[in-house]
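Q: What structure does this chain adopt?
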Amino acid sequence: MTHLLNEWSKQPFAFGGAAVSGEGGGYGFGSVSDPQGLLERAYEMGLTIFDTAPIYGFGKSEEEFSKFIKNKREDVKVISKSGVYWQSSKRVDMTNDPKVTLKMLEESLKRLNTDYIDLYMIHWPDPSVDIRYPLEVLSKAREEGKIREIGLCNINIDDLKGSEEVVPVRVVQSQHNIYEEPPQDVIDYMKEKDISFMGWGAFDKGILTGRVTKKREQAKDYDDEDCRKSAPWWVQKDVIAKCEKLSFFQELADKLELDLSELAISYALAPSWSHIALVGAKSIKDLEKVLNGKRILLTEEQRQEIQKQCRL
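A:
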């Protein structure tokens, strides 16, 4: 069976829209001098899948996508999501309430200035809401032509199995890098059902590029627009622990004649169930480095060696 993402892209990459959220706030990693130039360069280099979400810049990423896709709507696949909402005060709410799901979909369609979204995903599980309720909303939206396909992000096995009582899930998106993988039961279910997988965080928010060091501190060493400056999930002791393992990964990369970021991408794309890696460069130079970088097919023994190091 040909997976949906393989049908959509000849490249094993998709563009991660958090990169162009700029000064909008929310989930993003600092200002970008030329977001349109960056998106156009990604397209020139063969990327056809562009992933965004409302929380990326509190809508700014979707607005940038709107300008980019205006004259090439049928040539690109756009992904957006529901579930991470915010109030007028910018206080973020994580909810899969069906009414909020519908509201977010309609708002994304307006910001993107499009009649349909190619793949619409629920961004995070919500333990207070049965996953089937928002999916009923999305199933109806699919029947109406507002979305083409439905997917789930950061999902657990119970919600993944429950979702298929309502609608076929075509894509799962979860964090996948040297330090973290999807739950094994989710991987097994994806393989059984031939569900496409898209990984985010291949560089673990910069750690696996070597640019994040254990001396880099939240309060002073990140731009004001960079969510790592104040995000509760960017914990210094965890960052330090990961940075302390980089020497091992750098040695392995040198042995394989790769640089650290090339090893990270090779790892993210190594499993047969991993079809696409999201990349979110903030500059054309960084984007070109990733897309033109060397990739090798890591053996299962090499992957296990890396995983063993992460468990130490």
